From TrEMBL, chain A:
Protein's name according to its UniProt entry: ATP-binding cassette domain-containing protein
Family under the similarity heading: Belongs to the ABC transporter superfamily.
UniProt keyword annotation of Cell membrane present: yes
PANTHER family: AMINO ACID IMPORT ATP-BINDING PROTEIN, GLUTAMATE_ASPARTATE IMPORT ATP-BINDING PROTEIN GLTL
UniProtKB/TrEMBL annotation, chain B:
Residue ranges of every copy of the ABC transmembrane type-1 domain listed in the record: 23-219
Membrane topology: Multi-pass membrane protein
Protein name per UniProt: ABC transporter permease
Broad class of the protein's primary localization: membrane
Subcellular location: Cell membrane
UniProt superkingdom: Bacteria
Sorted UniProt keywords: Membrane, Transmembrane, Transmembrane helix
Species, as recorded: Flaviflagellibacter deserti
TM ranges: 31-51, 58-82, 88-109, 153-178, 198-218
Organism ancestry: Bacteria, Pseudomonadati, Pseudomonadota, Alphaproteobacteria, Hyphomicrobiales
Length: 237, 231
């Protein structure tokens, strides 16, 4: 665990999001504990992305509460489904994020270099971020989030637009980050990926959290018929 | 007519001092106005683009309307402001290049601000979540968005430059078209044409067109190159 005080567990209590009369999320109660990666799973429209964004603080729930166990402001970061990289060099993108996070000016350069080197991106540090390949852009976005020293890292379908080699590189990054003690909370609808990375699974369907189960048990014997159908590859509506 | 063209060519190639003075003054006035309008208009447009406050829609409509503000009317209003008995008469600006800079700034500020608002508003749709996720306040996002929109914003600045350099009514009224002091390319063209000196008018017209073309081509080329090299 990095940082003096753990901001986990994150306690979500009866979290709901109602937009124009529609319940996009309803009655979601879950604790996210320190430790193994949590995979947010479910079909499209299940509310995975909304749940992540509410936890991260980008969205306010219309009912219920989301509470961190410590001051979480700078201690949690998120890699959006389609991360926006600024029209500047890869390194300058990381420096910009560090500046927004309040890192002292004198430290930013060294921390950005360290983050890029850590994930084998040193060679592209000076390249314009917008001209990188899709896989490189995604890895840069993750390195940028990692550079902020988060205790919790949210990732929203980080490999959905990547080819197999890009996917593998991103999964390796996530494994390394998780091993450092950073709590990973990640949405994915890729079953293989979930099997490879998950410590536990939060299965969403129709805006509700249907089950929160340790990974081996979930893949062995899911508790709800919806999850069983999802694992079978049946379409869920 | 052909004689006029020949004489015009001669004027341009000979580096006539009177002609040079007019061209330099025009550029000085227009570029100063563009600089001031940019310093105000870029951040102002970006601010209006990403903030929500009561009266914002009215300001957006007003800015768009002022993009087409009739220059002679703007000139008249600034004349009234700067005239001896006007509220800003003590500045002694009327009939000086300073007054012309004020007039052109007033004319192009709405163009720069309005086009900037458009560009930044579109950018904000893509950037908002990312910048908020990284902990950026809206005010802090303004320089980030302006820098990332730099290639599109160049068009806003060129539009401002075009409007300022082509304008004649306002600078005529507040500058007075004084020979050797406040005579610009456009006011000189108007004057020389009415006097029948078509050669000078044509020469000035050609130079004005060439300068505008050169500036646009240069800006476009630079932006293309920078975009290719720097993303």
């Amino acid at each position: 665990m990095r940082g003096p005080l753990s901001i986990l567990p994150l306690r979500c209590r009866s979290v709901g999001l109602n937009v124009r009369g529609r319940d996009l999320l309803k009655d979601v109660t879950a604790d996210l504990m320190p430790g193994v990666p949590s995979m947010i799973m479910g079909p499209n429209g299940a509310g995975k992305s909304l749940f992540l964004r509410i936890c991260h603080g980008l969205l306010q729930p219309t009912s219920g509460s989301v509470e961190w166990s410590g001051p979480a402001g700078r201690a949690q970061a998120m890699v959006l489904q389609r991360p926006v990289l600024l029209r500047r060099s890869a390194r300058a993108n990381v420096i910009h994020a560090l500046a927004l996070a309040g890192a002292p000016r004198s430290e930013r350069g060294a921390r950005a270099d360290a983050a890029l080197e850590r994930f084998g991106l040193g060679a592209i540090a000076a390249r314009p971020a917008r001209l990188l390949s899709g896989g490189e852009q995604q890895r840069l976005a993750i390195a940028r989030a990692w550079a902020l020293n988060p205790q919790v890292l949210f990732l929203d379908e980080p490999t959905s637009a990547l080819d197999p080699s890009g996917t593998r590189a991103v999964e390796e990054m996530i494994t390394v980050i998780a091993r450092e003690g950073v709590k990973i909370v990640m949405a994915t609808h890729d079953l293989g990926q979930a099997r490879r990375l998950a410590g536990e699974v939060l299965f969403f369907h129709g805006g509700r959290l249907r089950e929160q189960t340790p990974a081996p048990a979930f893949f062995e014997k899911p508790q709800t018929p919806e999850a069983a159908a999802f694992l079978n590859g049946d379409l869920l509506w | 007519m052909p004689e006029a063209f020949t004489a015009a060519l001669q004027l341009v190639t000979s580096g006539d001092p009177e002609l040079t003075r007019i061209v330099v003054l025009s550029l000085r006035v227009t570029l100063s106005a563009l600089l001031i309008a940019s310093l105000i208009g870029l951040p102002l447009g970006a601010f209006i683009a990403i903030t929500r406050f009561p009266g914002r829609p009215a300001i957006v409509v007003l800015l768009n309307t002022f993009m087409g503000f009739p220059p002679v009317v703007a000139g008249l209003l600034i004349y009234l402001l700067l005239s001896r008995s006007g509220p800003l008469g003590a500045l002694g600006l009327l009939f000086t290049p300073g007054a012309m800079i004020v007039a052109q700034t007033v004319l192009i500020l709405p163009i720069v601000a309005s086009l900037t608002r458009q560009v930044v508003e579109d950018l904000w749709v893509d950037y908002e979540e990312q910048l908020r996720s990284l902990g950026s306040s809206r005010l802090r996002a303004i320089p980030t968005l302006l820098w990332d929109g730099r290639y599109s914003l160049l068009t806003a600045l060129l539009a401002g430059f075009g409007r300022a350099s082509a304008e004649v009514g306002a600078v005529m009224i507040v500058g007075g078209n004084i020979a050797g002091y406040t005579r610009t390319m456009t006011t000189a063209i108007a004057l020389e044409t009415s006097k029948g000196d078509l050669a000078l008018a044509l020469a000035l017209g050609a130079i004005l067109l060439a300068l505008t073309l050169a500036l646009n081509a240069g800006a476009f080329g630079t932006a293309r190159l920078a975009q290719r090299v720097g993303g």
